[in-house]
Amino acid sequence: MENQDKPSQETLEKWSKDPNNWKWGIFYYNKEDKRLMPPKRIPWTGWTVNFANGNSVFLFVFIMLFVILFIVFMIEIKR
To answer: What gap in Å lies between CA 54 and CA 12, rounded to an integer?
Structure first.
């Protein structure tokens, strides 16, 4: 039953290659895709955020806040 909800590898690749799922050519937006970090258009370049998935956006914001706080913390230590 659980396997029926999971899209096939062929479907996942089709979603990644569909230009309609890429806003301005750089932002991945697909409500059907439940992955947090789908591969970029060119898969060997890494992963991207699915901006149609609220959990994915939350993860992105969390990582960005962590990086910013780390940088601020390192700058304060050097003073």
So the answer is: 19
